[in-house]
Specification:
Blueprint lengths: L4 E6 L3 H10 L5 E7 L5 H8 L4 E3 L11 E4 L3 H13 L3 E4 L8 H14 L3 E3 L7 H10 L1 E10 L22 E7 H7 L5 H8 L8 E6 L6 E9 L2 E9 L1 E2 L2 E5 H14 L6
Parallel strand pairs: 1-2, 1-4, 2-3, 4-5, 5-6, 7-9
Antiparallel strand pairs: 7-10, 8-9, 10-11, 12-13
Length: 268
């Protein structure tokens, strides 16, 4: 009989819930627990409904999971990622933007080495990451990323300080700068920028523009890159999750895909 993959999921927001519902009945995946904040325990327990445990710390998950799945964003990864890695548990995450903080990057690497484990950042809401990683072998001269969302997709971010999102009449560029600065200022919105940068020239050498466009109903991600490999232009128009206009459906699907790949004898 094939061994099950035991997982603990950090978070109980829209992406975490989508992932859990998609894989709950997978025969080779077993959800041991979700890791929730103290303030969210009641909601987490209601969602779990006795199907799996709810904990506030990795050390409380029994039995010890094979994999921790971060769906909670920067704060969740910062709090639980190093602990999981140091105790020998591998981690997958869609929170690449958290690495804009040098201290966290150092902590994750140090913890992974100490525990003999690893962390993998997924492509999330965008594609073309495999091409950028390959192109980087030969050298990339320039990478630019443009993120365009409907105004409500930027609600709760610092875009609200730069324009009236509810009454915007035309596209508005509310950020221009490096991927590191984008990830720092937009922790819930700019993980794509960080993922692209980390797969190519680095957080300080990828130019980013973030735009609110009232004429859109989808999120648009555009990548342009030039290097020894040639030229790359990639665009995706992504739908948000039906339960949250700020969460990418593709980001949630990328987590499900990775979990299924982890239990498959043939991987792509």
């Amino acid at each position: 009989m094939e061994k099950q993959l035991g997982i603990a999921v950090i978070g109980q927001g829209p992406i975490a819930r989508y992932v859990i519902e998609q894989v709950f009945d997978e025969p080779l995946i077993c959800i041991y627990a979700i890791i929730a904040r103290e303030s969210s325990l009641e909601k987490a327990l209601s969602f779990a409904d006795g199907r799996f445990s709810v904990c506030t710390a990795i050390r409380d998950v029994e039995p010890k999971p094979d994999l921790v799945v971060d769906c909670a964003g920067h704060a969740g990864l910062s709090e639980h990622g190093p602990v999981a890695l140091a105790t020998g548990i591998n981690v997958i995450s869609i929170s690449a933007g958290a690495l804009a903080a040098p201290q966290l990057l150092e902590n994750l690497e140090k913890s992974a080495r100490a525990g003999g484990s690893s962390i993998k950042f997924l492509s999330g809401a965008v594609g073309g990451i495999d091409s950028l990683l390959a192109a980087n072998i030969g050298g990339i001269a320039e990478v630019r990323y443009t993120g365009i969302k409907p105004p409500l997709g930027w609600s709760g971010s610092c875009a609200e300080e730069k324009c009236d999102l509810k009454n915007l009449q035309e596209p508005f560029v509310h950020f221009s700068g490096t991927a590191r600065e984008a990830a720092r200022l937009y922790p819930a919105n700019a993980n794509v920028a960080a993922t692209i940068a980390l797969a190519s020239k680095g957080l300080d050498d990828v130019f980013v523009e973030l735009i609110a466009d009232p004429g859109l109903s989808r999120n648009i991600h555009e990548i342009q890159a030039t290097g020894a490999f040639g030229d790359l232009r990639f665009q995706i128009e992504g739908n948000p999750l039906s339960t949250n206009p700020k969460s990418s459906a593709l980001a949630a699907m990328s987590v499900v895909r990775e979990l299924r790949q982890q239990t498959s004898p043939i991987r792509f």
